[in-house]
Specification:
Helix content of chain B: 40-55%
Oligomer: heterodimer
Radius of gyration of chain A: 23 Å
Number of strands of chain A: 4
Number of domains of chain A: 1
CATH class of the largest domain in chain B: Alpha Beta
Shape of chain A: globular
Order of helices and strands of chain A: HEEHHHHHHHEEHHHHHHHHHHHHHH
Order of helices and strands of chain B: HHEHEHEHEHEHEHEHEEHHH
Structural class of chain B: alpha/beta
Helix content of chain A: over 70%
CATH superfamily of the largest domain in chain B: Bordetella uptake gene, domain 1
Strand order of the largest sheet of chain A: 1-2
Distance between the termini of chain A: 58 Å
Shape of chain B: globular
């Protein structure tokens, strides 16, 4: 089958009419069921994306029983819609209240919130939606055209390659910070140390768990992100009384200006490319996409001095990257039956409930399901941008809600969301602890973003380093003899040199002084 | 709605005339705690059975995923819950046979703190090798391992998982050596197996089956004493010279220890009925499950006791420990 035929099959499935019995009038009516499921998924996804802490994993888990009675294609289309819809919604909370609605929108807080503080919440939200839409369309096209060969690329990534990629990421983490270099490094190390908590993968030994069983799987990423960004932000806002309300007074226009458009297209393209590439990797690639895109933009942009103070590039690039990554992370699941994250694992569960064994045979045995899902992603992205752009005005109104009403509701949603991760109140407690830590960091002018990145990378790095060493029987040269791995190591070395070059360091200090 | 409920309860009561508490149970929703993440095989089977129980009991059966500490948090939570039949757990080979030997300061007794209601799923593990490995059966694999000691790696979903323990048992029974490579879950392990970075894996049948059928990996044997209905041509390890090799992943419904006898009986009967439903049976089969032969609470308790005795020494010998 050529690509045109398969897409025709896919769109045919998405727009197909299915006879449904309407219970209360007892008449069978053909309704476009799959497209409705797509809409339900997109709307629901946007909603839970906006709600801090409540993520697609908990939502999809709650909806799994409903999928019992749906047709497999409709069920999968809806669940997928929730996942990428959440990527759209997540940026809204990040921009308006400096709270990552989703784990992938942590970086969007950095510049998105600063834009909002300058009265540019509208353009920031629009940029996020437009970037996400573009990235979603491109990534969906990539899945349709090249999913099977890209899955082979994913197979090329072994422990050595992952480790070297993480090294590159870690070096980039330092670039991520805009204040003091020493503080950035300290925060990265703090993140790495926190990442050590839990069970050692190799020996099964419990580390720093203090006999608390809840700590034996480590601390959840969402818990840390919610505490460090959300709770800490609330504490420091309350300290300032009601002064937050001023930022609505400055709202000038809702949509990006001509200047904004000129500045955002290149970051959107770069973010899409990077996000699509990293999303394919099942070992935590998608999560790195937004961090990677932000760092890249900060290095290449002419406006790098504006980063951290409301640069539109700092919203456009990571938002495009996280949506592209969200779409391409379907590739390992669809082609190999291997889930690259918790959401994909749930999708596989949804298939199993339907009695379909996930794996490479799905594409051939159930082409309607496979291509229908892919076509639905394109339709879903279109729905999301249509839904989200008109809503910007409404979201801006949210800023006029007095903070004394806003913050308790945010806290409640955060607590519900964090609790729902593993149905355990312990996580809520940990979030509170990180809230205090986050507040201390705000006071010390230490940024949480490098810490979060260290926290994500640390465990992945250790796991892959030790696995690579086990596989090579202790021969450390594997990192340089494997070409992909060597490429990352060399890139990391170059980046390290650039960061430590005197001339550039001086420039960095100037940036610091300006603040 | 209320009328149907009352009718259902009345019907239930007349069906079990001897048991008084069953008349009032269940009067509110029943919580079925799953120790693992939503979407996994334990969760999916809990939801399948839970939906049938809900219809039979006339009360909602709410599946709740309480993850952490290899399932111990959920099992411990249910062990210490009120024994009133409203809190149940899907206890598994990990929480009730392997973990007690694996974790220090183990919080509950897998036998005495529970009523074992019904064994729901038994899934074989299957020995799969990467296609590039020049062995076609278990005998050739053993010969290859003896010629190339320490050359091969076997992957598993985690230290102390059935995949790990099966590998250790295999090494011990054949007197061979290969390196254990633990992963965080079986998905990344399968990925490295497909890519040929590791050569062997004792994967559970459900997750291995699609790759076996599409020819991406080669299956050599199942770890159960009997052949699997899915791959009837595939020999068991027992047949292949490893006499007595038996490692079957299982999970089943359990309640806190002092749950009333009548409630346990009713739950057991309804669960078995649900499992015999052709549709549920078909879906459990799609996950690689064989229909369990253990079909009463007493037999299930005996089964758990036997499993505990089997795994404790195996865990100790494997060197895996979480202390």
């Amino acid at each position: 089958m050529g690509i045109i035929d398969t897409l025709r099959l896919g769109f045919g499935e998405v727009f197909s009419l299915q006879p449904m019995l309407i219970p209360w009038i007892k008449v069978v009516v053909p309704i476009p069921f799959n497209i409705l499921m797509c809409l339900v998924g997109a709307v629901l996804g946007t909603l839970i994306g906006v709600l801090p802490g409540i993520g697609p994993v908990a939502t999809i888990a709650m909806l799994l029983p409903i999928t019992f009675n749906l047709n497999p294609t409709g069920a999968l289309i809806m669940l997928a819609g929730i996942y990428y819809g959440a990527q759209y919604g997540g940026s809204t909370t990040a921009i308006l209240v400096n709270l990552p609605g989703e784990s992938s929108s942590v970086v969007t807080c950095l510049d998105g919130y600063q834009m909002a503080r300058r009265g540019r919440a509208g353009p920031a939200l629009a940029t996020a939606a437009i970037g996400s839409f573009f990235a979603g369309c491109v990534a969906t096209l990539i899945i349709a055209v090249a999913a099977p060969p890209l899955a082979e690329v994913a197979l090329k990534f072994g422990p050595a390659e992952y480790f070297s990629l993480m090294v590159l990421g870690l070096v980039a983490a330092v670039v991520l910070a805009h204040g003091s270099l020493i503080k950035a490094i300290a925060m990265v190390i703090l993140g790495l140390l926190l990442g050590i908590i839990g069970t050692d993968v190799n020996s099964g030994v419990l580390r720093f768990t203090f006999d608390i069983p809840e700590l034996s799987d480590g601390i959840g990423f969402v818990v840390v992100a919610m505490g460090m960004f959300g709770t800490a932000e609330i504490i420091s806002n309350l300290e300032q009384g009601e002064s937050r309300e001023i930022f609505t007074a400055k709202v000038s226009h809702l949509f990006p200006t001509k200047e904004d458009w000129k500045r955002m297209w290149a970051p959107i393209l770069r973010g899409t490319a990077l996000g699509s590439a990293l999303g394919i990797l099942p070992g935590g690639g998608a999560l790195l996409a937004s961090f990677g895109a932000y760092t890249l933009e900060k290095k290449v942009s002419r406006y790098s001095h504006e980063f951290g103070k409301g640069a539109i590039e700092g919203v456009a690039a990571p938002e495009s990257a996280n949506n592209a990554g969200a779409q391409t992370s379907f590739i390992p699941m669809l082609t190999l039956g291997i889930p690259s994250n918790a959401v994909m694992a749930l999708m596989i569960g949804a298939l199993m409930i339907q009695g379909i064994a996930p794996g490479p045979q799905v594409m051939n045995e159930k082409p309607q399901l496979f291509w229908g899902l892919i076509a639905s992603m394109w339709v879903g992205n279109l729905m999301l941008v249509v839904l989200n752009l008109p809503m910007i005005g409404m979201w801006i109104k949210l800023l006029t809600v007095p903070y004394r009403y806003l913050f308790p509701s945010i806290l409640v949603f955060m607590a519900i969301g964090v609790y729902s991760l593993s149905n355990n109140a312990f996580d809520v407690l940990i979030m509170a602890v990180f809230g205090v830590l986050g507040y201390i960091c705000v006071k010390l002018e230490c940024e949480p973003a490098p810490m979060i990145l260290g926290f994500i990378l640390g465990p992945l790095m250790e796991e892959n380093l030790r696995r690579a060493m086990l596989l090579s029987r202790g021969d450390a040269t594997v990192f340089l003899t494997k070409p992909i791995s060597a490429g990352f190591i060399i890139a990391a070395a170059i980046l390290l040199v650039i960061v430590s070059l005197p001339a550039l360091r001086k420039k960095r200090e100037e940036v610091f002084v300006e603040e | 709605m209320r009328a149907t409920l009352a009718a259902l309860l009345a019907a239930a009561a007349s069906f079990f005339p001897s048991c008084v508490p069953a008349q009032s149970w269940p009067a509110r929703p029943v919580h079925l705690v799953v120790p693992y993440a939503a979407g996994g095989p334990v969760d999916v089977s809990a939801r399948l059975v839970g939906a049938r129980l809900q219809a039979a009991l006339g009360q909602p059966v709410v599946v709740e995923n309480k993850t952490g500490a290899g399932g111990n948090i959920a099992a411990d939570f249910v062990a210490k819950s009120a024994p009133d039949g409203y809190t149940l757990v899907m206890g598994a080979i990990a929480t009730h046979a392997i973990n007690p030997a694996l974790y220090p300061k183990f919080p509950y007794d897998p036998v005495r703190d529970f009523r074992h209601v019904a064994l729901v799923v038994q899934v074989p593990n299957v020995l799969v090798v990467n296609n590039d490995l020049p062995v076609k059966d278990v005998r050739q694999l053993i010969a290859y391992l003896k010629e190339n000691p320490g050359k091969l790696d076997f992957a598993s979903g985690s230290t102390g998982s059935t995949g790990h323990l099966a590998g250790e048992l295999f090494k011990q029974m054949t007197g061979t050596y290969m390196v254990h490579i633990p992963y965080k879950g079986s998905s990344p392990a399968v990925l490295d197996l497909l890519a040929g970075r590791v050569q062997l894996m004792f994967d559970n049948l459900a997750s291995a089956l699609p790759n076996i059928q599409s020819g991406r990996v080669r299956a050599l044997a199942v770890t159960t004493p009997r052949r699997s209905a899915f791959l009837p041509e595939l020999p068991t390890l027992d047949e292949s010279g490893l006499k007595g090799f038996d490692m079957t992943t299982w999970w089943g419904l359990m309640a806190p220890a002092k749950t009333p006898e009548a409630v346990v009986e009713r739950l057991s009967a309804e669960t078995l009925k649900a499992m015999d439903d052709p549709e549920v049976k078909e879906k459990l089969r799609a996950m690689g499950s064989e229909t369990p032969t253990v079909r009463s609470p007493a037999a299930f308790t005996a089964f758990v006791e036997k499993e505990l005795k089997t795994y404790a020494p195996l865990v100790k010998r494997s060197g895996a420990s979480a202390d």
